[in-house]
Every structure is written in structure tokens, then in C-alpha cells.
Amino acid sequence: MSSSNKQAGSLNEKAGISSHEITNASAIIQIRNKRRQQPSAEELISGILSGNRTVLSRAITLIESTNPEHTEKANEVIKGCLPNANKSIRIGITGVPGVGKSTFIEAFGTFLTELGKKVAVLAVDPSSTISHGSILGDKTRMENLVKNENAFIRPSASGENLGGVARKTRETIILCEAAGFDTIIIETVGVGQSETAVHSMVDFFLLLKISGAGDELQGIKRGIMEMADAIVINKADGDNIYKANQAKAEFNRALHLFPPKKSNWLPKATTCSAITKEGISDVWNSILDYFEMTKETGFFQQKRNEQNQFWMIETINEQLKQNFYNQPEIISLLEQNKKAVQNNEISPFAAAQLLLNKYKKSL
Ligand SMILES: Nc1nc2c(ncn2[C@@H]2O[C@H](COP(=O)(O)OP(=O)(O)OP(=O)(O)O)[C@@H](O)[C@H]2O)c(=O)[nH]1
Ligand SMILES: [Mg+2]
């Protein structure tokens, strides 16, 4: 501080008294401690149950944390929310970049809130660590939904592997449902296995397409067609309407050739425009039909039960793998054996067995 400032500053009025620093230091510690004070699990649970979106965000951050100290608290929060979860429709949406997912979700989500629904939009994007969250990153395409009190938008958790990202999203679904969100939309792009992961956490899976150069089925993964409960040809507006209808017919023909689904549901292709909103309500009506039918047959609950079993096993697999590969002894032994395998000193199978035996002994 310059001497002229010193003269002007009211804090320096009494020259020679230098106790400020000590007072300030303790004040700073106090402020820091207060900042560090995290809400307890009970506080988070009651905040979520009362529908507080800020608390919901904080709890999701806790779930997404890679700090092992947070895991226990996160589990406590999930456990507290679980009795109030499950009362929702979970919808997965996939489609290649540029197909209009964000624009569609903006239109569809807004439409649902106008019906009195509470909509949570989540994403599964395992590439987001590299691309810094391209998916849902463009909240500009969802400018109305972002501001909507009955909507909650959360970009994808980041992580190195799909398993971790997907598990966090699944746990986030539970918290959103407990916070009163009755329609959960999960967006993904077809990177790696992310579609399969999303398919295994939703009730209804929607594939968004646009009409192409005539050969609509070209380049489409068969597995995705089989997973889809509906195919929606987006951008059916202006000059595109004719082509979109042609694509719809072609997809409907193709869908007929697939074996019947376990749910007995017959997936349909429809057209829509996320811009003019034409066809948006048809998508919702189709989901309602599905919901009604599968609730009646019991398939809805059966599928959720199977998904829960699946995620339990997935979590065990993931934890086992993590435990194994993170053991310091295993890390060095693995390196040694990689070299030994490369030099043909040991077979890959024998090396694997050796490592597994070592791990078993350490348990
Ligand atoms: N004409 C027309 N354009 C649309 C429609 N839906 C989206 N678009 C446009 O298509 C472009 C891509 O839309 P996005 O919503 O960003 O697509 P996305 O699938 O979310 O893309 P990524 O986030 O990159 O995966 C934008 O310029 C939109 O304005 C539609 O129904 N009709
Ligand atoms: Mg997008």
C-alpha cells in the first residue's frame, strides 16, 4: 500500500496499532471454515425432497466426486432418496451430432412442462472429459428450458470410462425423481457403448434421425434399431417434409422386419420438427401408449427390475476391476508380466492366472 493510500485509508487512522493482521487472519480462517462446511446428508436429503434444485445440484456434485471420502455420504443421500424415487417415466434420446437432439429436447421438454410435468434432462457422454462436455454443453439451444422452473438440466458427468459415467447418471436419476421430477430425459450420442448404457436405464428409447440422401438405412447400426421404441425423423419442415415422410415410410418398412420385442410393443417411425413443434405431441402420445400398455402387462416393472439387477452386477464388476488394477503390488507385477508375455517367456493365460492368484492371496 502506498503512503498516500495509508493516509487516506480509515483503517490506518491509528498509526502504530498493528493488530489488524491477526484479527483478519482469524476472520479469514472462520470464513474458510464456513465455506468448507458442507451440508450433512440429512440436510441434502430434506432439501432434495422439498424440491430444492440448488440442493439437488450439490448432491449430484457429491455423487460425481471422485474423492473416496465423498462416497459414503453420497450413498447415504441416495439411500435416503430411494423410497421417493421410481415414480417417473425415463426416456432415452439418441442421435448423431447435428440431428437436433438439443433443439428437440428444448421443444419436447417445454411441451411437457406446459402439461404440468416436471422434467429433468441428463446426459451420458463418456467423451465429455476430452471434449469438455459437448453434450448439453450448448445450453443456448435450450434457452427456454434452462430458465423454466419446472425443468432441471444437468450436463454429463465426466469420467474416463463409460461405466463410471453411466453409474453416476443412474444415481442422479434417483435424486431427480426424489426431488419430484416425473419425466427424466437422458440424452446420449452414439459413442462407443453409451447407447446400450442409456438403454439399460430408461423405460423408453427414442432414436432421432433426419432424412438423408434416400438410402435411410445406410450406416445405421442394427443394434440401435433393435433398441429403439420409436424412431423420430426430425427437421420435417419446409422443403424437407416430403423427404422426411419418405424416410418415415422406409423406416416403418424396416421396423416390420425386426423380430417382435419382448415388450410386444411395435415401434413406429414418425416425423417431427423441433422448430415448428409439429409432431412433438405425437411423440408424447406414443410414449403414453407404451407406458399404459407395459404397465398393464407388467413389462414396465419387469424391465426396471432387470435393469436394477443389471446395474448391481455392473457395479460389482466395475469395483472389482478397479480394486484389482489399483493394487500397488498388482500394478508392478502387471508391468513385469506384460514384458514377460511380450518376450514369450510366459503365456498370456498363465500370466493372467499368476496375477489373479496374487490378488486372491492379498484379499
Ligand atoms: N429446420 C430444422 N432445423 C433444426 C431442427 N432441429 C434442429 N435443427 C437445427 O439443426 C442444428 C443442430 O441442432 P442441435 O439441436 O444442436 O443438434 P444436436 O443433435 O443436439 O447436436 P450435438 O449437440 O452436436 O450432438 C441446429 O442448427 C438447429 O437449429 C428442426 O426440427 N428443423
Ligand atoms: Mg446438442
From TrEMBL:
InterPro entries on file: GTPase_ArgK (IPR005129), P-loop_NTPase (IPR027417)
GO MF term set: hydrolase activity
Pfam families in UniProt: MeaB
Keywords: Hydrolase
EC number: 3.6.5.-
Protein's UniProt keywords contain Hydrolase: yes
Stated family: Belongs to the SIMIBI class G3E GTPase family. ArgK/MeaB subfamily.
Protein's recorded name: Methylmalonyl Co-A mutase-associated GTPase MeaB
Species for this entry: Flavobacterium gyeonganense
Gene: meaB
